[in-house]
Design a protein that fits this description.
It is a single chain. By secondary structure, this protein is α/β, with parallel strands linked by helices. It has a domain of 216 residues: NAD(P)-binding Rossmann-like Domain (Rossmann fold, 3-Layer(aba) Sandwich), CATH 3.40.50. The strands form four sheets. It has a seven-stranded parallel β-sheet, sandwiched between helices. The chain has a two-stranded parallel ribbon with strand order 7-10. Strands 8-13 form a two-stranded parallel sheet. Helix 1 links the parallel strand 1 and strand 2. Helix 1 crosses helix 6, helix 3 packs parallel to helix 4 and helix 5 packs parallel to helix 7. The chain starts with a strand and ends with a helix. The chain binds uridine-5'-diphosphate.
């Protein structure tokens, strides 16, 4: 029987990971300081024998009694408005938090997978983004707190791998969506769904010509599961390469709710907002035999069903 620690367990991705590893038969230890996570995402697990939960901030020393075979580090504010509101916490969880968890992995002889991000590529000058692109990040811009924390996280993870022989995995996660995203987290997809359901203006930033590539959460979780069990320690992009403009995303979501009285309105583009983003997933295809299976129509429809239950 394997035991796994998942940080950020009450968040969007963390809670889906808890479910997946629990279903696979693991003993799951969830950890979260509930800064942006919500216990409602994991409350169904509390009555399960193989699940335990620690309310703890991983930026402080992390203590978990007993053996740990695996650690997944998914704790962090992850939406641009969250990390703008919580710049210091964002830097600390990516740096101090990662250091603590690597130390724990070393002591427990656990394999550790850390959640990195397409933000390490910044406003990319290479398109689509391959793992060997080093990125174009403004360290002192508003997004720098997240981007640089994640870049430091990758560096210290690699250092623990080479200097201490810790078994490490690095996933670079591109835009992901699905049930349990917070409707108010400020990201485009939940914002557009919430606004369309409430007949509010749909806030497109800039002229909406910037692009993103959206991956349904189940596909992402499968990619992470495979990466954890691979023997590959360099970074791997996991995302859906189907790219669309933000305006097109807004129009698609609005069209799914024909009764909505919402209209698109245009707001200023935030500073350093990446103009394009699309993962090159050749590495994941080759090493993990992974590729996304859920198309956007299906994924958006499952996600909208969820938002209909939570948007009042
Ligand atoms: N965006 C938007 N309206 C919103 C929220 C976001 O037009 O209400 C834009 C944002 O400027 C960016 C894109 O949508 O160009 C995706 O933003 P998101 O916050 O979802 O994540 P990012 O990919 O920038 O991390």
């Amino acid at each position: 029987m394997s035991r796994i620690l998942i940080t950020g367990a009450a968040g969007f991705l963390g809670s889906h990971l808890c479910d997946r590893f629990y279903e696979e038969g693991y003993d799951v230890v969830g950890m979260d300081n509930l800064l942006t996570g919500s216990l409602t995402n994991i409350e169904h697990l509390f009555k399960q024998k193989r699940f335990e939960f620690y309310h703890h901030d991983v930026s402080k020393f992390v203590h978990v009694p007993g053996p740990l075979d695996f650690i997944l580090h998914f704790a962090s504010p992850a939406s641009p408005i969250d990390y703008l509101k919580m710049p210091i916490q964002t830097l600390k969880v990516g740096s101090l938090g990662t250091h603590n968890l690597l130390g724990l992995a070393r002591v427990k002889k656990s394999r550790i997978l850390i959640a990195s991000t397409s933000e390490v590529y910044g406003d990319p000058l290479v398109h689509p983004q391959t793992e060997d692109y080093w990125g174009n990040v403004n360290p002192v811009g508003p997004r720098g707190v997240y981007d640089e924390a994640k870049r430091f996280q990758e560096a210290i993870t690699m250092a623990y791998h080479t200097a201490h022989g810790v078994e490490t995995r690095i996933v670079r996660i591109f835009n992901t969506y699905g049930p349990r995203m917070r409707v108010e987290d400020g990201r485009a997809l939940p914002a557009f769904m919430g606004q369309s359901l409430r007949n509010q203006d749909i806030t497109v930033f800039g002229d909406g010509s910037q692009t993103r590539s959206f991956c349904y959460v189940d596909d992402l979780i499968e990619g992470i599961f495979r990466l954890l069990h691979s023997d590959y320690s360099d970074p791997v992009n996991i995302g859906n390469p189907t790219e669309i403009t933000i305006k097109q995303l807004a129009e698609e979501i609005l069209a799914m709710i024909p009764e909505s009285k919402s209209n698109l309105v245009y707001k200023p583009l935030p500073l350093d907002d990446p103009k394009v983003r699309q993962p090159d997933i050749s590495r994941a295809k080759e090493i993990l035999e992974w590729q996304p299976l859920v198309d956007r129509k299906e994924g958006l429809s499952r996600t909208l069903d969820y938002f209909k239950t939570v948007v009042k």
